[in-house]
Every structure is written in structure tokens, then in C-alpha cells.
Specification:
binds NADPH dihydro-nicotinamide-adenine-dinucleotide phosphate; binds the ligand O=C(O)C1=N[C@H](C(=O)O)C[C@H](O)C1; elongated; 9 helices; single chain; diaminopimelate biosynthesis; oxidoreductase; alpha/beta; cytoplasm; Dihydrodipicolinate Reductase, domain 2; five-stranded mixed beta sheet; Rossmann fold; 2 domains; NAD
Amino acid sequence: MTRIAITGAAGRMGRVLIQAVDAAEGAEVGAAIVRHDDPMLGLDAGAIAGLGKDLGIRAVASLSEVADQFDVLIDFTTPAVTLANLSFCQQHGKCIVIGTTGFSDDEKISLADCATQTGVVFAPNYSVGVNLCLNLLRMAARVMGEDSDIEIIEMHHRHKVDAPSGTALRMGEVVAETMGWDLNEVACYGREGQTGARPHQQIGFETIRGGDVVGDHTVMFASDGERVEVTHKAQSRMTFARGAVRSALWITDQKAGLYDMQDVLGF
Ligand SMILES: NC(=O)C1=CN([C@@H]2O[C@H](COP(=O)(O)OP(=O)(O)OC[C@H]3O[C@@H](n4cnc5c(N)ncnc54)[C@H](OP(=O)(O)O)[C@@H]3O)[C@@H](O)[C@H]2O)C=CC1
Ligand SMILES: O=C(O)C1=N[C@H](C(=O)O)C[C@H](O)C1
């Protein structure tokens, strides 16, 4: 049985992750970690997740209180919290599955540095569908890229704090890589005013925020006379949570190193 700890356990993803771990074969909730001032501190993880039953796991405020109670950590929090938790996992020989988005380039370098001594899965999106779309995008970019204008549109709930989404950025990286472009040079994050005509070698990003949208992404290849759109719409956070739990079970059998959901799926 793999014991899984969840940080940000009272968050939108944290609560669904508790449900997903509880439902998964071969996994159990080993620990739940919340902020020291969270009203959920001390409550049972089952109550936090609205499971209607106790799991016998009281929410604590720090990983050090539960270091011997888990094998893998699943962390969907904020970049600063994730990096601190990754460092803890590295020091204590624990694997970690990271879902957090919004890292700066420097933070991503620190993350990769830490991943040399322990097993780390890091993906901006744990749904199977989005990971399939990344492969479809490689093919679309190969076939349509030279003759198309490429735009990425994403919509998320009003609470999301980073933009563009980590998934949109990953989609941009995949398309840019396939086209032989550097995303830093070709990305255009929104347009306003006298923009001039659109250069061909550009990937435009449009971010929409509103309501309770779980996560919609469209990559558009617009050429003269036709348009291809690759769209993914997540309807439930459970799709991300199941992918993260699958990653947690997978990473325990791997060598130390940095992996993503494409590795977990064997793509
Ligand atoms: N990779 C993927 O498949 C997916 C990734 N995500 C990403 O996961 C992250 C979390 O998303 P979501 O669950 O919606 O966000 P939430 O804000 O609901 O959850 C984050 C949790 O982390 C807690 N937290 C924040 N700061 C601290 C701290 N200093 N110490 C302890 N706990 C802290 C928050 O507590 P508090 O509320 O008190 O601040 C909250 O419970 C985002 O980066 C999002 O983009 C989301 C869905 C899928
Ligand atoms: O914050 C969210 O909610 C989501 N974040 C991820 C991202 O930034 O790509 C994944 C998903 O779309 C939901």
C-alpha cells in the first residue's frame, strides 16, 4: 500500500485529491497538510474532503510532523510552498508529484536541480486528454504550422491566480519546439491598440477568467481557407486528481529524476 500525503489539503485540488486517493486501489491517505491558521487544521481528512467518513488522519500544519507517515507527497499549492516541500522530500527520501503552476524560469531551474536525488513528477496538467492533445499538437504543428497562424486560448475559474495557465504555456512550448522556434522569442501575451499586422512566427496567448470553469484550452492553427482547432475541456477536477494519484503510484518504482505525465502514460 502506497501512503500518500497531500499538501494544500483544504484547497480546491487538495480536497479532490483526498477523494481520489481514498478511491484508488493500492493507495491510502497517509497525511494531510494545511496552513497553520486554516480552520480545517486538526480535522479528519475525510471530513475536509466531504467523504462522509473519517480516514483516521488529522490535518497537520507541517510535513515534519508526519515525515514517517507517507511515501509520496502530492503537492498542488503555490510555487514557493512547492519548492519548500520539494526540498523536504529530497532531504527525507520521499517522492513527490507536483501539480502547481505559475513557476518563474528561475524557480523551474531550482525545481529541476532538486529532482536529481529523488523521484519527481512535474506536470501542468494530469488529465489523460490534455496529454493526448500535446501529441496531437506535435502532429498539427508539423502538418499545418508553416502555413498557419497559431493562437492558444484558455479559460479558467475566477479564482485562478496565474496566467497564462501552465497547460497553455506547455502547449506553446510543444508547438514552438516542433516548429524549431524559441517560445520566449515568439510568444505574444495579449494584444491591444495599434498592434500592426500579425507576424507569422508568433504564438498568441489569450487568457479568459470567469465563473467556475475547471479548465478549457484551445490551440488554433489558422491558415488561408481553413482552420484546425485542438480543444480540451476539463469538466471535473477529479480528472487531474486521478492522474496525479496514478503518477504517485508510478513514481515509487522509478529511479530518482524529473519526469512528467507523458512519462507516466508511456507516451
Ligand atoms: N497540474 C494539474 O493538473 C493542475 C494544476 N493545478 C494547479 O494547482 C495549484 C492549486 O490550485 P487550486 O487547488 O485550485 O488552488 P487553491 O488555492 O484552492 O489551493 C492551494 C492550497 O494551498 C494552500 N496554501 C497556500 N499557501 C500556503 C502556505 N504558505 N502554506 C500552506 N498551505 C498553503 C492554500 O491555502 P489557503 O487557501 O489558505 O491559501 C490552499 O489550500 C495551482 O497552481 C493550479 O494552477 C490545478 C488543477 C490541475
Ligand atoms: O488552476 C487551475 O484550476 C488549473 N490549472 C492548471 C494550469 O494552470 O494549467 C491545469 C488546469 O487547467 C486547471
